[in-house]
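User: Show me an example of a complex going from sequences to structure tokens.

Assistant: Sure. Here are the input components:
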Amino acid sequence: MAMADVLERLGYQLDFPEKQTCCGQPAFNSGYRDEARAVARHFLDAFEGDAPIVIPSGSCASMVAHHFAELFAQEPETLARVHALEKRVWEFSAFLTEVARVEDVGARFEDIVTFHDGCHSLREMGIREGPRRLLSHVKGLELRELEPAEECCGFGGTFAVKFGELSGAMARSKVDAIVRTGAHTVVSLDPSCLMQIRGALSRQGSNIRTMHLAEVLASR
Amino acid sequence: MTTEMHRHIHETLGDARLQDAVLTATGRLKASRIAAVAPDVLPDYQELRTQAHALKKHAIENLDAYLEQFERNLEAHGGKAVYCKDAAEVADFILGLARERGARLIVKSKSMLTEEIDLNERLEKHGLESVETDLGEYILQLAHERPYHLVAPALHKTRYDVAEIFSARLGVPHEIVIEKQTATARAVLREKFLAADIGISGANFLVADSGAVVLVENEGNARLSTSAPKIHIAIAGIEKIIPRAQDLATFLKLLARSATGQWLSVYTSFLSGPRRAGEIDGPEEFYVVLVDNGRTRLLADPGRRQSLHCIRCGACLNTCPVYRRIGGYSFPWVYSGPIGSVLTPQFMGTAHAPGLPFASSLCGACAEVCPVKIDLPKLLLELRSDVKEADKSEGRGRWERLAFRLFAWLMRHPRLYEMAGKMAPMFAPSGKGGWIRSVPGLMNFPPIKAWTDERDLPPPPAKSFRETWRRR
Amino acid sequence: MSREAILQSVRSALGRAAGQAIPEAPPVRIRLPEIDVEARIASLMVRVEALAGEAVRVATPADARAWVAAAIEGKQAVASNAPFLAECGIPALPGVRCGLTVESELRALCATAGVGITSADYALADTGTLVMISSPREARLISLLPPAHIAVVPSSRILSGLDELFAKFPLPAEQTSSMVLITGPSRTADIEQILVRGVHGPGKIAVVVVG
């Protein structure tokens, strides 16, 4: 909802196609390509049209923009629809910086914040500077960088439950790095990362909160 | 197999000392690599990676012709190429040659391929002494263990371990000072180098236009193994071919930097054939054993053959958040880390370790650092699909498949999806408005338990997004 | 042994026929930076020292001889047959054995000598590397067996780096059975990642740049 607020404030008219459900990534990542294809086809149908599609998740945006083509490599007609769709898909922060061409959305969020680069947005979509520029214009916000930077939070979809102990260890390293920054809030582009990090923070009884970039940018 | 892997992972995660050793060592290698390829230090790093990828792709796509070219040039310089399809043939060749020459003692420099084919065991069974000369490999040989890491094989051993191993196996006094331990190894191995009948090496590169073998090392043991004995046998996978000596200007700039952060390793040897007329030292006989051992199978798939680009630098291991926590012994084969996860199912079959391609969060850090641009995450995703296809045709994993079928079905029915969302709060235990620590009873089935063992679960939202959206 | 079977296996995997030509390879990538001799010398010396080697510059061959004489004082040394070493007068120094052409003799001396003295065919400025080409003039073991290695190199042989080496010398195999690039003293960090020098190769290395 925060994403909707930010976009509407910038003057965009929003449509939420009710037919939409999921991009199919959980099935794809788990090796169930037939099932992923079925969900992906539904996505293609749900988002038929021309308008840009803004997605508040790096991993979902990446699934659509990069992996749909793999799924339909053997279906030329569907592949053509996929290529058309790819051009319309934007991760939320990239939409703001590349399409809306705005870096100051008039937000106010007084807090010490650290930013977690989700692996899909960072490595598959090359998003690194955009969110930081957006955060730099938020009034009252102090951004501190994580060290080590660019480390996976350990979610990885079903990895989090198939290799739970390992995923937990990675989450704890992330939490340690967050605590070291002294930040009170962790911001990210990806709800899955946020769930993993928040789950680990909560387990440790921490008061550090997690927020999606959109929520920070929607704050006044 | 997955259970065994989970057991190793569990043990490694629980061993604080080992965790620290692996994280620290790989952390150092990772940081050194980053410094060595930084834009102000190696400005054309990305271009070099692109070139290296293109060269490997080209070499592998024309491998038959390049092998023949390699062989011609090798023989023109007095060397001999020997093609072996598997471990047994390699051992047979070496044993045959050793018998003919009355050879007893072999010195060996580091070669992952020889680990792959268990060469030392095979030779020793027939009464040959084959001594590893790389310090880390030597320690492991004495301890009867396999390498822990591509480039730092004894990563998991402390000086105390080494003191025990040396005093037990070499009969020397217990010594924990590392310089002294190294001096002991140096003295023992020096005798071996100078007495050995045969020197066996691997090959970092096979240069087609020269019939040459390139060896990259820091200690000098590869140089000694291939200069002192009368016979040098280099054993290499057929995929090690590069087209031209001049291509080393690309590969050598990437290899050491990617492996350890050194700009060049201490010794890079370019060896082509036995000593020439007038040369004072060097081997009198020079063999290059070209090994298949399953590589031609990987060649057959145009999408998968990039797995053979690997130059064994270990950068992917040092950057992988999974390897850095679970270490080399959690992997079922001699190759560990991301490249190990990609090669093992392809060489050994997915049934050998069906969980292996899933032991990754797909963070993509490996692909970012691979000097030859192997798309490791893409290969892992494909291998996951392979595993599930195999499960399907062999009737395994029915519950999981059913769950994902249900998932796909639900996702195609938005109204049912919405209804399911509305129903979730009824089943979820109340976390008193906060996050959920644990889930009682029947709901606590494996995936849920796996999550809540390590972290809290989010409470289901009071109002769904759709409901809020509709009210605007 | 399995030559035909393997080559055939490769061909069918690739969909290629026996004798099929190789399409054009990606062009060789060689970049030659413009670096003058003084800058090369400076870079070489900085890099050698960064690797815990010793780097010295002297003006003349006679100066080189004087430096080496002091460095090997009281030690047994083996020198290669490189003409440049003779030009510097190094073979005549006390404690130096030179002119060896029989391997067994060479090996025995290298095994007990305290220092190996060689020239170098080239040096690489950007990485602090010595390029040693095996020949009647330069044996392999001299820069390998003794615990210390001194290389006496005329400054004219310093190349900018690997690219220039392979541009000048694209087919080393035509000339020699062994070309070795030596970058610093022998080292390992195999035990607890602690750096130890002089594992199998020389633990001390000195580069004397002449001119």
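The lines above are the inputs; the final block is the predicted structure for all three components together. The first strand of chain B starts at residue 80 and ends at 84.
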